[in-house]
Design a protein that fits this description.
The protein is of the alpha+beta class. 37% of the residues lie in helices and 24% in strands. The chain contains 18 helices and 27 strands. GO terms for molecular function: sterol binding.
Length: 774
């Protein structure tokens, strides 16, 4: 049954489709496949019906090479991972495909270069614009038209290059024909001239069609541009009139405010009772202004009335009733610190390294590895070290202590609400190291440990252990001489979705302070790695965190705003409100997870106007001047060649004296990668993973034999048959060495708690119980 002949579009179009014979194997030879060329990608299907659900293969033309074998055959390859041997039905059809492929390749390479330069890879098409939005809608329309016209101009340039190339070849052939005598070679040369003349005609037609498209678009949009320009002029006139009216209103309000202030100064009793009419009017106008903002957040902060600053040091009862007693010590001073505390500037007793070997420039096609892994758990995908960074997940977890000074300061706070500000800032600071770090840390081996002993420099000791392999789980315990303890067990759930990877850390983080016995808990937000297939990798954090003080009932709700191309807000924004157990707001936190966090003390709160989207009222917080609570440390010099490691990360894999034999610093594949010997590191990585599999199989056999022997010695009663704990008995009897499994008294989760003994074993130099994992 013959297929209907499909119309062939011009090669200058954005999409090219058609039947081409593809080499499959030596048994079936060439088989007819339906090929689609779109957006710089060449995909093929067995039939046209498969286009909606099953793609048999895709190759990115930006990095591909296109070669011609003979009259009908041509080859497309991206460097060895993918190679398509194709055959057209005739010579003319082959050249149509060659022209279309070269155009698509040039456009894809150009788009990739622009994407790398800008650092952000967003769709080139403009977003859909709703009708009736005035100048913004028309401006988007103009921008879209300009982008389309620019693309057509680039097509014309590419076609011009192709015409020059084919024209030169034709000229050479004609010159050779003139010098020939009438011999047997004349026929071959004449055929060659004819072939190249045909190619030249096809390319010329493509350029003519592109020119026609360009002219048609220019004529269609010329009137629209005139209307858009006139609309912009009208809008500018309206804005000038509006600004003039606002300036007059501002002067009027300023005069009214001065009059109210003078009236309050002349009557102290009246001023103590409450703000004057002029003040209230000014405040109402401010609230109206903020309510009119587009895309407003859940709450609004405005500067507190100047009267609050004057009254904060007085004992006026009317104002004291608006303040929480344990907040009155703050006023406009920084968060309180114990004056007897020692200086935070401690000179390290050991000189730490400041560099690692530069990252080699090895290229590898990620899509060739990931295309068969869509929907799988990321930890189960075998990955070469080319996508790693030379530290393990345990060391990455220890990087949460980069800004341990926040917990040191929190331990000295007099108020639990002040302490909450520092703890919330600490929970945000752990993400600052991820903004440039697109490399994947090594998956720890089961039983692998990592110690970070900075007791002499910074007063804390940290220990991590991989307590489970599937699912991967790491237990972490930190004890500080400065009055705090941090513990967590993190299980990473991750999914590869084709264009991005979602990493969802599961588990609760605990911070316990000796002073006041305050116990805080929170969880981590979702990390997303974008542009896995094409473009520059970039990382985003999104979600919400509730930092809870289980001792006092205080709570801080933090919101990590996901990145949006259309948002007017600052990128990577984090906002939060610190509330007491009664729900009264005391502090507002704001900033970005990659740069800094600030806090502002709330003096008054009120319900503002309605939110236009859902009709909800927003809370307006009147706050004092914002104070910085945390700022990211600058990256060391040359960090871009050292995996963008921070100063702490550069020291994590540095050898220490007396380490346990299971410490990540002993891991050979990780050490080889750090030294730049990636091929050897890949071999070692495979050896270690195979060794871990064999140990796990042996452990499962031992567990199975133990269950069999216990069942043969004891009779199984009727209750044991229905006991769910027996039915769900694990096949693996592995137990962690330094952590024990128990129930968390706060969350009720089954977690691993540090049982002690590690640092004592290190002091003795006794590691008999450690397994041989490397």
């Amino acid at each position: 049954m013959s297929e209907p002949k499909t119309p062939t579009p011009t090669p200058a179009g954005d999409t090219y489709k058609g039947w081409v014979f593809k080499w499959t194997n030596y048994i079936k030879g060439y088989q007819r496949r339906w090929f689609v060329l779109s957006n710089g990608l060449l995909s093929y299907y067995r039939t046209q019906a498969e286009m909606g659900h099953t793609c048999r293969g895709t190759i990115n033309l930006a990095t591909a090479t296109i070669t011609v074998d003979d009259a009908c055959n041509f080859v497309i390859s991206n460097g060895g991972a993918q190679t398509y041997h194709l055959k057209a039905s005739c010579e003319v059809e082959r050249q149509r495909w060659i022209t279309a492929l070269e155009l698509a390749k040039a456009k894809a390479a150009r788009m990739q270069a622009e994407s790398d330069d800008s650092g952000d890879d967003f769709p080139s098409s403009s977003p859909p614009v709703a009708h009736g939005q005035g100048g913004g809608s028309q401006n988007s329309e103009v921008q879209s038209a300009l982008r389309t016209l620019g693309s057509k101009v680039e097509d014309l340039s590419t076609c011009n290059d192709l015409i020059s190339k084919h024209g030169s070849a034709l000229q050479r052939s004609l010159s050779e024909l003139d010098s020939l005598r009438l011999t047997g070679e004349a026929g071959d040369k004449i055929r060659q001239v004819t072939e190249r003349a045909t190619l030249f005609r096809i390319t010329s037609n493509a350029m003519i069609n592109a020119c026609q498209d360009f002219l048609a678009l220019a004529q269609a949009h010329s009137k629209r541009w005139q209307k858009a320009l006139q609309a912009e002029r009208d809008q500018r006139v309206r804005l000038e009139e509006t600004l003039e009216q606002l300036a007059k209103q501002h002067n009027h309000l300023e005069r009214a405010f001065r009059g109210a202030s003078q009236a309050n100064a002349s009557s102290d009793n009246k001023s103590a009772a409450g703000p004057g009419k002029g003040e209230a009017s000014d405040e109402d106008d401010d609230n109206e202004f903020f309510d009119a903002m587009e895309e407003a957040p859940e709450f609004i902060t405005v500067p507190a009335d100047p009267q609050f600053h004057k009254r904060s040091s007085s004992n006026i009862s009317g104002f004291n009733s608006e303040m929480c007693p344990d907040d009155q010590s703050l006023n406009e001073e920084p968060l309180a610190m114990n004056p007897e505390s020692p200086s935070q500037e401690l000179v390290p007793l050991k000189k730490r390294r400041t560099r690692v070997s530069d990252k080699p420039n090895y290229s590898l096609n990620l899509w060739s590895i990931m295309k068969n892994c869509i929907g799988k758990e990321l930890s189960k995908i075998p990955m070469p070290v080319n996508f790693n960074e030379p530290i393990s997940m345990l060391q990455r977890l220890s990087e949460d202590l980069e800004y341990h000074e926040l917990l040191d300061k929190a331990s000295k706070c007099q108020s639990s609400l002040e302490q909450m500000c520092y703890v919330a800032a600490f929970s945000v600071s752990s993400y600052s190291t991820t903004v440039y770090r697109t490399g994947k840390p090594f998956n720890p081996l089961l039983g692998e440990t990592y110690e970070l002993d900075r007791r002499r420099e910074s007063g804390y000791r940290s220990l991590c252990e991989q307590v489970s392999h599937h699912p991967p789980a790491a237990a972490h315990h930190v004890i500080s001489d400065r009055g705090w303890t941090l513990r967590q067990e993190i299980t990473v759930a991750s999914k590869f979705r084709g264009k991005y990877i979602s990493i969802m850390p599961l588990g609760t983080i605990h911070a316990i302070f000796e002073k006041g016995n305050n116990h805080y808990t929170w969880r981590k937000v979702t990390t997303t790695v974008h542009n896995i297939i094409v473009g520059k990798l970039w990382i985003d954090q999104s979600g919400e965190i509730d930092v809870v003080n289980h001792t006092t009932g205080d709570r801080c709700h933090l919101k990590f705003a996901p990145y949006s191309y259309f948002s007017r807000d600052v990128a990577r924004k984090v906002t939060g409100v610190v509330m007491d157990k009664d729900g009264k707001a005391h502090y507002v936190l704001s900033g970005t997870w990659d740069e800094k966090m600030e806090f502002s003390r709330v003096m008054q709160s009120s319900r503002g106007g309605e939110n236009g989207t859902e009709g909800k009222q927003k809370t307006v917080y009147q706050t004092l001047k914002a104070r910085e609570v945390w700022r990211r440390n600058p990256l060391p010099e040359g960090a871009e060649t050292m995996y963008y490691f921070t100063s702490l990360a550069l020291t994590l894999n540095e050898s220490e004296e007396g380490m346990a034999p299971t410490d990540s610093r002993w891991r050979p594949d990780q050490r080889l990668m750090e030294d730049g010997r990636w091929d050897e590191a890949n071999s070692e990585k495979q050896r270690l993973e195979e060794k871990q599999r064999s140990v796990r199989r042996e452990r499962e056999r031992e567990a199975a034999s133990q269950r069999t022997s216990s069942q043969s010695e004891e009779a199984v009663d009727e209750d044991s048959l229905t006991d769910p704990s027996l039915k769900s008995a694990p096949h693996d009897n592995y137990q962690a060495l330094w952590f024990e499994r128990c129930e968390d008294q706060i969350t009720g989760e089954q977690i691993h708690i540090y049982k002690g003994g590690y640092w004592e074993a290190k002091d003795r130099g006794s590691w008999e119980g450690c397994p041989d994992i490397f």
